[in-house]
Design brief:
Blueprint (H helix, E strand, L loop, with lengths): L9 E10 L3 H12 L5 E4 L6 H8 L6 E6 L2 E6 L2 E7 L6 H19 L5 E4 L9 H12 L2 E2 L6 E4 L18 H9 L4 E7 L13 H10 L2 H9 L3 E3 L7
Parallel strand pairs: 1-2, 1-9, 1-10, 2-3, 3-6, 6-7, 8-9
Antiparallel strand pairs: 4-5
Helix pairs in contact: 1-6, 5-7
């Protein structure tokens, strides 16, 4: 994929996952887009607030919207990971492919177009056969797939929990976000985030969402981008 980035240029795409999950998540994504540095979002089309998320995206704003493929959600409990829900058998390639295509059709029905980029809930597509399925679809659509498209580096450091679900509040502060910006390498980086407000209390990532909004909207963060000469773009305008 041609990104249109010149040698040495540093480009940041700030992508909000879970758009469409709940009204509270939608409010957080919208606030972080309109008053912060979020440029893109990926939509969970199976959830009740997806239609409202699509309606917002249709109002002519600059938010780039992709598909957040949702096959399952896991939580850490009793010294291990267990599913809160599972849509299909993740080891069944045909079932995975059919579900992804179904969610893609739902996305088209809501948005009236193709997604600008692809990723998955809880990074499930890092494992096979999901990875290959999403890679094929991304290649067919000509869009970036998180952690697959070589020209776009993914950064997941801005996240308020560790690998076992324990809270790490210092990871989602203004200082932490500025630190990520200062260390940004040349090329294109996607920074993942999960903004939201009240209304998603059944999620494994609930309390942290509003704290992310505060950091993403803090004016010091945009100042840091300007001081370090970092270009803020969306997936839609990745290639000039």
């Amino acid at each position: 994929m041609q990104t249109g980035v010149v040698n040495g240029e540093r480009v940041l795409i700030v992508n909000a996952d879970d758009f469409g999950r709940t009204d509270g998540v939608n409010r957080g994504v919208i606030e972080a887009h309109e008053h912060g540095i979020v440029t893109s979002a990926t939509m969970m089309v199976r959830w009740p607030a997806a239609a409202a998320a699509a309606a917002y995206a249709h109002r002519g704003n600059a938010l780039s919207v992709g598909l957040h493929v949702d096959l399952a959600e896991w939580e850490y409990a009793d010294s291990g990971w267990r599913p809160r829900y599972q849509v299909v058998d993740a080891d069944d390639e045909d079932a995975v492919a059919a579900e992804v295509e179904g969610q893609l059709r739902t996305f088209r029905g809501l948005m009236g177009r193709e997604p600008t980029h692809l990723d998955s809930h809880q990074h499930a597509h890092r494992s096979e056969p999901f990875r290959s399925v999403l890679e094929r679809i991304g290649r067919r659509l000509g869009v970036v797939v998180r952690d697959v498209t070589a020209d776009v580096r993914y950064c997941g450091e801005f996240y308020g929990q560790d690998g076992r679900g324990y809270k790490v509040p210092d990871a989602i502060t203004v200082d932490a976000l500025i630190g990520i910006i200062e260390r940004l390498p040349s090329g294109v980086t996607e920074l993942g985030c999960h903004p939201g407000t009240a209304g998603d209390r059944h999620s494994v990532y609930a309390e942290e969402r509003s704290r992310e909004v505060e950091a993403l909207c803090n004016p010091q963060v945009r100042t840091a981008l300007e001081e370090h000469g970092i270009s803020l773009r969306s997936f839609r305008n990745l290639t000039p």
